[in-house]
Amino acid sequence: MGRRNNINEKIAALAESYGAVVIPHTGNVYNLNFIISEPESVTPMAEFLTKYREWMEQNMSGIPFPKNGYFELSENPGFGIIYSGEITNKIQ
Predict the structure, then answer these.
(1) In 26-65, which positions are buried (b, 16+ CB within 10 angstroms) versus exposed (e)?
(2) Rounded to 5, what percent of the chain is helix, strand, coil?
């Protein structure tokens, strides 16, 4: 399985060793990348939360949205999202 450093990867490894599954919340793109990076037997689905979508849609672009029950991640660099200028200025 290789070395695991990230807390999500450790949770997935633990679940896999017990034959359990992990179903993360996907209110953000970061958890989607985690789900896709693990075997389907460990992360078979995602729970789609809509509570924080409004904020994300106002402050970011490139946010994945499910179509027919499936997500497609961007081919863009990183997580494929772009923060608005206002958010970027606050971070810098």
Answers:
(1) bbbbebbebbeebeeebbeebeeeeeeeeeeeebbeebbe
(2) 40, 10, 55
pLDDT per residue as tens digits for the range 10-49: 888 999 999 999 988 776 777 888 888 889 999 998 888 7
- Catalytic residue at 25? yes
Residue type (1 letter), 61: S
Bigger pLDDT: 86 vs 35: 35
d(CA 26, CA 34): 10
Q: Which of 4, 14, 17, 25 is catalytic?
A: 25
Question: Which tokens hold the place of 24?
Answer: 């993360």
Tokens representing 9?
Answer: 């990867």
